[in-house]
Amino acid sequence: MLTLSENQFSSIYDPVNADPGVLPPDFFEMDHSAWDCFVYVLEDNARIGICRWKTENSISVLDYFITVPERKTRKVLFHTAALLINRIIVRDHPERILYKGSDAETIRALKHNLFFPKGKVLQRLVEGYRYAVKDSVFDSEGYIIHQGLTEVLPFGFFSSRDKGCGWIAAYNILKMNGMERTMFECADEIGSDDFLGELFGHSIYGLYAWLKKQGLDVHMTHMVKEMCLHRIKSSACGIFLYFHRRGSHFVAYRKVGDNLFRFYNAVYGRDNLEMSVEEFTKVYTVSPVSNLIWMDELREL
Q1: What is this structure's pTM?
Q2: Which tens digit of pLDDT belongs to each residue from 141-157?
């Protein structure tokens, strides 16, 4: 599991306290005056790289290195970017985030995290919706996990707190496939295609069609719960529509191990909710019928 250390500031580039094994070879010869915050990238608590950034006048500039060669994969770079972006947003509340480096794989990872070319740099604009809600709406990578705190975000004629689980699940599955859209775009586009203004939430047919339109290789099925469990087990990620004691609910999920899945926004505010599909359905579902949108493989990063 990837995480970031607590903010190190100057101690990370002090040769006495630093960990030279995960720093670039010329790290102590670099000019660090342009940076004011450093953190280590941790994989299962082992240091595999560093991140650094500086924020001034609502503009953050970031950079990061995965310096353990066998760990510098596209998957690690992608998730490190997501962790770093969320850390910067929570700490400094910038209006935009820039990357001025030239590493091709880092550029690729950032483009999968809503960065786009702007002159000679890459830029990500932080949307207003992000600051309209509390930081606890999101997990450490920026996935939405607390629909209960999204009452200020509209969805059709209603609040996302009451009817927004469909667009939230769509936002999360796009993000995990490196196709992140803004929250506003997801809520607005999905909410605008229902003439009833999302009175009954959103239909799984509309959600499936919208995800197809975005370019995701998704499939859809309606089946009894036992068959649905089998399909989830063989998939890489998806959106599960199930019935609980108070109604129905969409959740995005992603496979993280052998019959181990992470569910997003299933329990409001619960981070890293990981369990088998049998455990999940036993605890949270009440109906023998379920609906499923799934992908056999995550999109290549």
Answers
A1: 0.91
A2: 999 999 999 999 998 88
